[in-house]
Amino acid sequence: MERPLTGIRVIGMEQYMAAPYCTMLLADAGAEVIKVERTGRGDARRSMPPFVEKDGARKAGGFMSYNRNKKSFALDIQKPEGQEIYRGLVAAADVVVENARPGAMDKLVLGPEAMRALNPRLVYAAISGFGRLPGHAGPYGNHPAFDIVAEAMSGIMNAVGFKDKPPSWTIYGMADIYSGMCTAWGVMLTLYARERTGEGQMVDSALFDNMLSLNERMVTLYSVAGRPTNRGEPTLPYPRGAFLCRDGWVAINIPDGLTWTKTCGVMGRDDLVDVGRAGPGGTPAMDANELAEIVAAWLADMGRDEAVDTLNAAGVPTGPVYGAEDVFADPQVAARGMLMPIDDPDVGTYRFCRTPPHLSSNPELPARPAPNLGQHTAPLLRELLGYDDARIAELAEAGVIQVR
């Protein structure tokens, strides 16, 4: 069955997480993704734990997860012959996605301006810490950045954790994953625009921008009310957070007085309903911390499943706080097919996260395993660039390419 991006060819000059996650989304959607990797080592995540091993084969779980449904082309772009090959690949492509150090591709005359001159229909997506679009790079444009830097500067770290503790990061790689999603969205926008104009354009995706946009509530609260958002200081009038039950934690959100009234009814505390009748835009008579203590005391002797079922039945949004074991055992996760089995011929079958959303006409995703380094170099040279076996062998001997 054809996928939405069938017929679109993507060159991924990528490593680590942000760009590989972006191109994985495009590959899952049906695009042909050619992952360009350095010879010898390949993507750095090929060498990062956790590893799986079987019968002498050893592969990195993170690489397997973010690089399914792709082709690997091992190429030394520092060599003139490698640059010539790269230009040939780009000339035959619709999209380039890269997250090289800012300026690195320009020094090789392989950056967005040169590649779009070569292929005017090209969509060139560049992911960096602070952005690279000429005229909008800003004073930090050449600064190095990883996900935690974007979390810190976007204000997210300042909102996570407790008042008497240091700022806290969220989940490893969140800025990379979210930036990959934002970049894929940008690629889709430009492909759609190309249908009308016939020309491609640059997609400039910055980790800092993307995380700041994710922290929209902080921006709105300060812009509209002049109120900063600080960790450990509740800004909502009603309880919101994790509460400990007898055998685990549950997450509860009580967004308004109506939901508080429902909560009081479930707890058998109708005497507390009045604190939730402050009126539109008002605040309850008791603050959120005091209300949370009441809810916590009620939940302390309840089982986690009982608390979830009771509160959800009453219309109070509640869910269990899961660990990995819970996620892998959850029937909703199974029903949605969110843990895809990927069968790797070298190390066996493992489950990885499915990319959302589901499409009614294309609900199932392709499940080809992440490629071995240089697995597709020779076939692509033959099919796309017309190289014969003798030339391919010559380039491999010279270290310009790596074949498997």
Report what the structure shows.
The protein is α/β, with parallel strands linked by helices. Helices cover 39% and strands 17% of the residues. It is built from 17 helices and 14 strands. A seven-stranded mixed beta sheet has the order 8-7-6-1-2-5-14, sandwiched between helices. α1 (18-28) links the parallel β1 (9-13) and β2. α1 (18-28) crosses α8, α6 packs across α9 (207-214) and α8 (174-197) packs across α9. The longest helix has 24 residues, at 174-197. It is elongated, with a radius of gyration of 25 Å. The model has no long low-confidence stretch (mean pLDDT 92).
Q: Strands, helices and their partners?
A:
Layout: E1 9-13, H1 18-28, E2 32-37, E3 51-54, E4 57-60, H2 61-66, E5 70-75, H3 80-91, E6 95-98, H4 104-107, H5 112-118, E7 123-128, H6 147-153, H7 156-159, H8 174-197, E8 202-206, H9 207-214, H10 216-225, E9 240-245, E10 248-253, H11 257-267, H12 288-299, H13 304-313, E11 318-320, H14 324-329, H15 331-336, E12 339-344, E13 348-353, H16 377-385, H17 389-397, E14 401-402
Parallel strand pairs: 1-2, 1-6, 2-5, 6-7, 7-8
Antiparallel strand pairs: 3-4, 5-14, 9-10, 10-11, 12-13
